[in-house]
Design brief:
The chain is an alpha/beta fold. The protein folds into two domains: 196 residues, FAD/NAD(P)-binding domain (3-Layer(bba) Sandwich); 122 residues, D-Amino Acid Oxidase, Chain A, domain 2. Helices cover 35% and strands 28% of the residues. It has twelve helices and 21 strands. The strands form four sheets. Strands 7-6-15-16-17-14-18-21 form an eight-stranded mixed beta sheet, sandwiched between helices. Strands 9-3-2-13-20-19 form a six-stranded mixed beta sheet, covered by helices on one side. α1 packs parallel to α6. Bound molecules: flavin-adenine dinucleotide and 3,4-dihydroxybenzoic acid. The site of flavin-adenine dinucleotide has 34 residues, from α1 and α8.
């Protein structure tokens, strides 16, 4: 006998409780629109997954306006710029002077914790540790999300719309019929070895270092915890990177006249992140809307991924508000083209930062061009302003 699913009904079914899914559910709640979020991982896993760290000006504003900015304001580190380091010297890019704006360094998992806490406080539907997720009926007016809970029981969420917020490796993108999506992709021949360490900050702001041995990034999480990255091979074996080697390599990539003081400490987390640029077009089919990493990936050099995920769902929430408010579908119809304009600007910026800062193998001409570009960006007001304007983030859609 076929098992009868437990049926729930909502307006928007959201697949994935990363930044895109959680922010979308929050924005919808604030507009009186119901949603149900389902997530394959556990709450603890989502709250501990170390990923992004830089929040654009607009992302900070959106979280604050929607009541989840209190801890971010207290614990987030407001930065007034970044340093670009090359040829043994650091050069400051002053964001307030160039754009009137700042950025905030606050871990993505902290944002996720704050968002989950707000959901729980509001009594909103958020189901962790689900499995066997399927999306059906997106070509009609009554799409359905099916899944199994931890005990194996079958569930069905009947909804008006599905938001595919399940990241790059999720199932939402594949729920769109073959031949609809066009993929644009670039894979880079290097990766980042990222660490989290219990040590003092290397500098008061982030340092993006271009070095003959490879790129390095010195970021932060708190006065006592730092986040740092080293350019490495995509198939780098972490077993070959004992802590001493990591500290030695970070130190070497900082060398020069005004070398900041790198104080080693306990490394509490290590991982390798692949680098890719990826966009699918369109970001919507029928009643399924893709948002965040489910639709696009940027290499992390420009710190854009999480911010783009938030920008997508800001567009989607407004479009759904117009639909439920007065039946107006124009903004929903324009969802993909509205988002893609910002997505491609972020793709360009992330690709450009990545190309300017990483070591490319056996390309002496390219290396000279990189140095010329860095020299230009740090000495021309117009060029530094262009970097700053993109880094603090283009305005969110109003
Ligand atoms: P995700 O965060 O991937 O969330 C998707 C969720 O869906 C996950 O919780 C996943 O478990 C869940 N899921 C997957 N499959 C299913 C399924 N079948 N059913 C239900 N749920 C499912 N971005 C920045 O803006 N600034 C930075 O400084 C930055 N630095 C980065 C550094 C690193 C090392 C890395 C790896 C990324 C960085 N990013 C940065 C990118 C950023 O982390 C991502 O762009 C962001 O997580 C995208 O959010 P999302 O909600 O779209 O996807
Ligand atoms: C961090 C990550 C980035 O990709 C970046 O460009 C800046 C900071 C971080 O994890 O802190």
């Amino acid at each position: 006998m076929e098992e009868k699913p437990q049926v729930a009904r909502t307006q928007v079914g959201i697949v994935g409780a990363g930044p895109a899914g959680l922010v979308l559910a929050l924005l919808l709640r604030r507009r009186g629109i119901e949603s149900i979020v389902i997530e394959t991982r556990s709450r603890a896993y989502c709250e501990q997954r170390i990923r992004a760290g830089v929040l654009e000006h607009g992302t900070v504003g959106l979280l604050e306006e929607n009541g989840v900015g209190e801890r971010m304001r207290r614990e987030g580190l407001v930065h007034h710029g970044i340093y670009l380091r090359f040829a043994g010297r650091s050069h400051h890019i002053d964001f307030p002077a160039l754009t009137g704006k700042t950025i905030t360094v606050y871990g993505q998992h902290e944002v996720v914790k704050d968002l989950i806490a707000a959901h729980v406080a509001d009594g909103a539907a958020l189901h962790f540790e689900v499995g066997d997720v399927r999306i059906e009926g997106i070509d009609g007016e009554r799409p359905v999300i099916r899944y199994r809970d931890g005990s194996g029981a079958e569930h069905e969420v009947a909804c008006d719309f599905v938001a595919g917020c399940d990241g790059f490796h999720g199932i939402s993108r594949d729920a769109i019929p073959a031949g609809v999506l066009r993929i644009y992709e670039r894979v880079y021949p290097f990766a980042w070895l990222g660490i989290l360490s219990e040590s003092p900050p290397v500098c008061e702001e982030l340092i993006y270092a271009h070095h003959a041995r490879g790129f390095a990034l010195f970021s932060q999480r708190s006065p006592a915890v730092q986040r740092m990255y080293l350019q490495c091979a995509p198939d780098e074996d972490l077993g070959e990177w004992p802590d001493e080697r990591i500290w030695r390599e970070l130190q070497r990539r900082l060398e020069g006249d005004d070398a900041p003081n790198l104080v080693p400490g306990a490394i509490v987390q290590k991982g390798v992140t692949a680098m890719r640029s990826f966009v699918v077009e369109p970001m919507q089919h029928g009643r399924l809307f893709l948002a965040g990493d489910a639709a696009h990936i940027v290499p992390p050099t420009g710190a854009k991924g999480m911010n783009l995920a938030v920008a997508d769902v800001a567009v989607l929430a407004r479009a759904l508000e117009a639909f439920y408010g007065n039946g107006d579908t124009a903004a929903l119809d324009a969802y993909s083209s509205t988002c893609l304009q910002r997505v491609w600007r972020a793709e360009r910026f992330s690709w450009w930062m990545t190309s300017m800062l990483h070591r490319m193998d056996a390309d002496p001409f390219g290396e000279r061009l990189q140095l010329a570009e860095l020299d230009y960006v740090t000495s021309s007001r117009a060029a530094s302003q262009s970097l700053a304007e993109n880094y603090v983030g283009l305005p969110l859609p109003v």
